[in-house]
Amino acid sequence: MSKVLVYSEVHGDTVKSVALEILGKLAGQEVDVAVIGDLPEAGVKALAEHGAANIHKISGNGLDNYSAEGYSKALKTLIDKGGYDYVMAGSTSAGKDLMPRLAGMYDAGMASEVTNFTMDGGTFAGTRPLFAGKVLAKVEIDGPKPHFVTVRPNALGMPESATAGAGNVSEESVDVGEIKAAIKEIIKGASEKVDLTEANIIISGGRAMKNAENFKILEECANVIGASVGASRAAVDSGFAAHSMQVGQTGKTVAPSLYIACGISGAIQHLAGMRTSKVIVAINTDPDAPIFTKADYGIVGDLFQIVPLLTEEFKKIM
Ligand SMILES: Cc1cc2nc3c(=O)[nH]c(=O)nc-3n(C[C@H](O)[C@H](O)[C@H](O)COP(=O)(O)OP(=O)(O)OC[C@H]3O[C@@H](n4cnc5c(N)ncnc54)[C@H](O)[C@@H]3O)c2cc1C
User: How far, in Å, is the centroid of ligand 1 from the Cα of 263?
Assistant: First the structure.
């Protein structure tokens, strides 16, 4: 058995679901959770139900807004105290920023963006996609502990059943000293939708959307089926969609249950970000578009006709 610390981001009233996915996979290990800042009761409950033994709420000067420097110093204080073998987090924007920095502080090994892992005998072994998902590497970590791991959101899936942990909450006050690059303000985007990396359904538009206004037809469909809206880089570079919506090698990596690609050709860099989606639907006027080689269901046709038709059909069953 190993002692594991899971860093969980707080999202609204609760925690980001990737933390619960990781907890589910860690059943049988001794698992604590760290959050920075306040954690509403619903978050405490979810973490305890998924196996957290201790939930450390860390606070202190300089931790009001996220900064890799402040948060890594805060987590290091806790890791030093707890003597953890592994520290794990989702490979979200913050997780990807924070965990390598912490690994660097300890001069320790790290496995990034794993899509699955085992803890046989308390030893981590993970699977990690390489070369835009063309190769699945088996990764183990050598060297002194703690070892660090980030896990791709939605890849493990939520556990079907979980063994509850004690969920003892402790308040940890830390002094992170001076932060050289402090974030003064965070302005949230207009969208209240679930972050793309955590979305269960995504409907994305490509260059064929023609302009930002036309993304409304995707929004309408998304509202009916509870999806988040994504975009290809061509759509983002053309100014039709925000960069936070970009899926792909230089955007977000997503693994929803359902990915609907509308007017997206299926370039390798786009596929790199969505090929692990459970079901892929492609709508494209070109029957030879590469996206169809990866799609489970393909519709050859004009998205401006098909998407509104789908929206109407979805309305009947939702
Ligand atoms: C280093 C690097 C990193 C990159 N990173 C990314 C990334 O993160 N994400 C990403 O997406 N791309 C990325 N790209 C760009 C990538 O190579 C492609 O250029 C891009 O994905 C193409 O976007 P698209 O499919 O929307 O546009 P296009 O390739 O132009 O495809 C548009 C598609 O729409 C179809 N179409 C046209 N009209 C309609 C209609 N009315 N209805 C239905 N279908 C229609 C066409 O048949 C075509 O297949 C990267 C490139 C490089 C070099």
Answer: 8
3-173: CATH topology is Rossmann fold (3.40.50)
- Residue 113 CA, ligand 1 centroid: distance in Å: 24
Q: What's the confidence (pLDDT) of residue 189?
A: 66
- The CATH 3.40.50.1220 domain(s) of the chain lie at 196-317
Query: What is the structure's pLDDT at 297?
Result: 98
Q: What CATH class does 196-317 carry?
A: alpha beta
Residues with CB under 6 A from ligand 1: 206-208, 232-235, 246-251, 263-265, 267, 269-270, 273, 283-286, 289, 302-304
Mean pLDDT of 106-118: 96
pTM: 0.82
How far, in Å, is the centroid of ligand 1 from the Cα of 191? 23
In three state form, how does the secondary structure of the chain look? CCEEEEECCEECCEECHHHHHHHHHCCCCEEEEEEECCCCHHHHHHHHHCCCCEEEEEECCCCCCCCHHHHHHHHHHHHHHHCCCEEEEECCHHHHHHHHHHHHHHCCCEEEEECEEECHHHCCEEEEEECCCCEEEEECCCCCCCEEEEECCCCCCCCCCCCCCCCEEEEEECCCCCCCCCCCCCCCCCCCCCCHHHCCEEEEECHHHCCCCCHHHHHHHHHHHCCEEEECHHHHHCCCCCHHHEECCCCECCCCCEEEEECCCCCHHHHHHHCCCCEEEEEECCCCCCHHHHCCEEEECCHHHHHHHHHHHHHHHC
The boundaries of every CATH 3.40.50.620 domain in the chain are 3-173
